[in-house]
Q: What sequence folds into this?
């Protein structure tokens, strides 16, 4: 979509994606090797009663699901900011995540571009909010 196709209040729903224990431990091994993502026995004794996904993984999955809607397509130029990031609830193996993505700001720029800011609200299969964040990207007009 071009910049002019976006408007404040516009909302998109993404498809969903299940995070398996293998997905969580594989991601954590490479990018966030903390016990709550990798050590099942130690994690069971902790605050979350088991292994949870890294917040960074939840953010990455949320971004992936949004991009796969095709809304930006080839009209996106670059991301410029990711703000107001909140990891609200833990994501467990077997959780199925999806996003509600709402356009919260559009700002026209020069040189045939504009900034589009969307709020990610990521939910699990119980429709519990697990993550929020605002993404701003530069888009062609």
A:
């Amino acid at each position: 979509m071009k910049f002019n196709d976006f408007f404040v209040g516009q909302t998109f729903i993404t498809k969903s994606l299940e995070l398996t224990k293998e997905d969580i431990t594989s991601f954590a091994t490479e990018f966030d090797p903390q016990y709550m993502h990798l050590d099942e026995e130690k994690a069971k004794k902790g605050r979350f009663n088991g292994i949870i996904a890294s917040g960074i993984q939840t953010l990455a999955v949320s971004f992936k699901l949004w991009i796969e809607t095709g809304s930006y397509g080839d009209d996106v130029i670059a991301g410029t900011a990711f703000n107001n990031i909140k990891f609200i609830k833990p994501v467990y193996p077997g959780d199925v995540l999806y996003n509600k993505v709402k356009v919260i700001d559009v700002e026209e720029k020069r040189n045939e571009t504009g900034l589009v800011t969307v709020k990610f609200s990521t939910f699990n299969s119980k429709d519990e909010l697990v993550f929020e964040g605002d993404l701003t990207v530069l888009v062609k007009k």
The chain has a mean pLDDT of 97. The radius of gyration is 17 Å. Helices lie at 21-31, 35-38, 40-44, 55-67.
